Amino acid sequence: xxxxxxxxxxxxxxxxxxxxxxxxxxxxxxxxxxxxxxxxxxxxxxxxxxxxxxxxxxxxxxxxxxxxxxxxxxxxxxxxxxxxxxxxxxxxxxxxxxxxxxxxxxxxxxxxxxxxxxxxxxxxxxxxxxxxxxxxxxxxxxx
Length: 143
Ligand code: HEC
Prior knowledge:
The structure is a single chain. Strands 1-2 form a two-stranded antiparallel sheet. The longest helix is centred in the N-terminal third of the chain and has 20 residues, at 2-21. It has a single domain (27-132), classed as Cytochrome c-like domain (Cytochrome Bc1 Complex, Chain D, domain 2, Orthogonal Bundle), CATH 1.10.760. A hairpin with a 2-residue loop joins strand 1 and strand 2 (86-90). The chain is mainly alpha-helical. It is 45% helix and 5% strand. The site of heme C has 22 residues, from helix 3, helix 4 and helix 5.
C-alpha cells in the first residue's frame, strides 16, 4: 500500500513538472534559444564578442529603441563591407540568415534588446515588417 501511494506521488509530481516546464509559449525563451544557436558562436553567450574581430552587444548603439528594427536587417542580410585601410579586403563579415522568419527575428531582437545592458523595449511587428521589406543592405550586399 505504501508503495502504491509513493507511486501516485511520483506520478502526480512528474505531471506537475512537465506541465510547468515546457508546455507553454514563451517568446523570450525562443529568442534566447535562437541567439545561442545562431549568434553566440561569434558574439559569445555573454554577448561580449571577441575583441576587435566581433563587436560586443553590450549597451550597443544598434540595440536602442530607435535602431532595434534596423538591426533586423543586419540579422537577415548580414554585414559585409570593405576594410577602410585596404578596400581590396573585406572586414570579417557577419553572415546573412535568410531563413529566419520575422517572428524569429523579432524574438531574437526582443532578447538581445533587453539583455546585455540594452533597454530597447519590444519590437513592433508592423514596423519590423516595414523595415525588413526595405533593408539598405539587401542584395547586392554593399553595406
Ligand atoms: C560568423 C560570426 C557572426 C555571427 C554568427 C553573427 N555575427 Fe553579428 N557580427 C559579426 C561581425 C564580424 C560583426 C561586425 C561586422 C562589421 O562591422 O563589419 C557583427 C556585427 C553585429 C551587430 C552590430 C554591432 C556593432 O556594434 O557593429 C549586431 C547588432 C549583431 N552583429 C548581431 C548579431 C545577431 C543578433 C546574430 C545572430 C542572429 C549575429 N550577430 C550573428 C559576426 C557575427
